Amino acid sequence: MADRLSQVSGHLSNTYSRGLLAGEVAIITGMSSTPLGIGKATALLFAKEGAKVVISDIDAKRLEGVEAEIKAQGGDVLSVAGDVGAEDFPKKIVDATVAKFGKINHIVNNAGFTYDKMLHTTPDDAWDVIMKIHVRAPFRLIRQAAPYFRIKGSKENRSIVNVSSTSGLHGNVGQANYAAAKSAVLGLTKTICKEWGQFNVRANSIAFGLIHTRRPERPSRSTARRLHWVFQEPRALTDDQNAYLGIPLRRGGSVEDAAGAVLFLCSPLASYVSGHTLEVTGGVGI
Predict the structure, then answer these.
(1) What whole-number percentage of the chain has pLDDT above 90?
(2) Is 17 a domain residue?
């Protein structure tokens, strides 16, 4: 037994010395042109941990900037510009990924935005576009990649991470569309867990609380009261402000905090974690 434990320990040590995701391929949607995006921070961290990263964004120039940063740190990266909601997007990014790297280990469905309205004033288009980007798009990308995940007998580390939100867990004023979509993501994730577990595929969701990122494109008057309140630039809040927001850690999260949580769910450290929703909130909601 001692010899076996020593062998396992040595194997893990070698794996981690090369990076938690060494040699693995990860698709990550949704980048940012500022230093403050969760998608960008995740892509940079994954590349640092040895992953070959496939990044996507609707803004091609934004994507070029992130690609340049990853290459500057010695990472292996492929950029695929496009709208995640477009009909041809899933096939486009999956085909490009397999052509370049030959396989897919992880998909991180991070792309999204908010379109806030009070429920009684929410038009159909505000509802439909949020459902399209936050629910339909992840579903279609995962379905397109199914042949590269549903592999019998595979022992490779493979996972799906769908980004949800505390709004999906608890609802939120002014976000009937967003809360419903992010709640739907949880059901999608649990179903993948149950259907694909037999292929050694893990599926988890992540629900962020207050993370200092760029401001939403469509802020509402309720923004200051949301647990995912965001800022144009990161700045420290006073203890009183953090206490008002109900954050036990007395600070908002950084994009590095967010990226680290995604890395954990994709890494071998979470090899027996599936069907879970990881709340990254600084302790809010306990």
Answers:
(1) 75
(2) no
